[in-house]
Design goal:
315 residues; 16 helices
Length: 315
């Protein structure tokens, strides 16, 4: 009821539909990120094209270049040195490292499995909050966390994991841990800073290490010799512009328009979009991925319930 009231009792009815439009766009954009990574890594015959390092670096470079014109003004608004350093750390934890971890994971696991693992992010947000920041978590949230991790065991326990090594799935899990660390750090250290300013400074800073990675892998030299790298490069650039830069801005807009409860539900939509694309590109998710995803989302739902508290975070 609270969410319905929040969405549909606005000054103009069109505002509610705009919120839903932003929500659907975010699900589609972020849910499509996993297949775009795969398209950057392999062609339709499954032959490798770009390396995981190149796809991730191109993604970060594209996002940084798109937001670079906003950097001077954002840098002035983030006046203190500590704020700037935490913003850069946020970029590393919340974008740079997860981009490489997910790309490395998808060299050996399906994009649908990566999308399902991504749904564990809210669980790690809660675990980091209680483990590093001393936030008290009610018992029903702990139950949700345990159910979510039970779903993760289902993901890794099916027969199709014989061709998808556990270690590579754990790389994707590590990426969601980075997301959990970043969300809590932003809440603790950067709550006073503008969201778009944080994204702009973080991604702009990542231009330099991204170029360094591409230079070290010999990407620029290969692009002059191989015409078959244009399509995976395009997929990686689209991933950076839309899946990273634009999606971050849309998410911040939605948070400001609809509060924090409604945007957090994007977590539920992303894996279904990821699985839809995977099936379209002839991946074959196993029964364990469907069952594991359902259990994870049930755990996320329970862990994010307010339990009757006036505080939606339940902390």
């Amino acid at each position: 009821m609270q969410l319905t009231h929040q969405l549909f009792h606005l000054k103009k009815p069109v505002d509610a539909w705009l919120n839903w439009l932003l929500f659907v766009l975010l699900c589609l954009i972020w849910g499509s990120s996993f297949i775009l990574m795969k398209l950057g890594l392999y062609n339709q015959q499954g032959h490798p094209l770009l390396s995981a390092y190149e796809v991730a670096a191109l993604r970060m470079l594209s996002a940084g270049l798109v937001l670079l014109p906003l950097a001077p003004a954002a840098f002035r608004r983030l006046a203190t040195r500590s704020t700037r350093w935490f913003t850069i750390l946020s970029g590393l934890l919340g974008s740079f490292l997860p981009a490489f971890l997910f790309c490395l994971a998808e060299t050996r696991i399906d994009s649908s499995l990566a999308g399902a693992i991504n749904a564990m992010t809210p669980l790690f947000v809660l675990l980091v909050a209680t483990g590093l920041y001393g936030t008290k978590i009610p018992s029903h949230k702990w139950l949700g966390i345990m159910i979510g991790f039970g779903g993760c065991l289902l993901l890794f326990g099916g027969a199709n994991m014989k061709s998808q090594p556990l270690a590579y799935g754990l790389l994707a899990v590590l990426a969601t841990i980075c997301y959990g660390l970043n969300v809590n750090m932003v809440k603790s250290r950067l709550l006073h800073a503008g969201s778009v300013d944080i994204a702009t400074i973080a991604f702009s800073f990542l231009i330099v290490p991204s170029v360094a990675v591409l230079w070290a892998t010999g990407y620029f030299g290969k692009m002059q010799l191989r015409t078959d790298l244009w399509v995976p490069t395009g997929a990686s650039v689209v991933l950076g512009i839309f899946g990273t830069a634009l999606a971050s801005i849309l998410f911040y807009i939605l948070v400001k328009r609809a509060g924090i409860i409604f945007p957090s539900l994007v977590t539920y939509g992303i894996p279904f979009v990821a699985m839809g694309w995977a099936i379209f590109f002839h991946e074959q998710p196993g029964w364990n991925q469907y069952a594991g995803l359902a259990v994870i989302l049930a755990g996320v739902y329970l862990a994010n319930r307010s339990g009757g508290s006036k505080n939606p975070a339940g902390g």
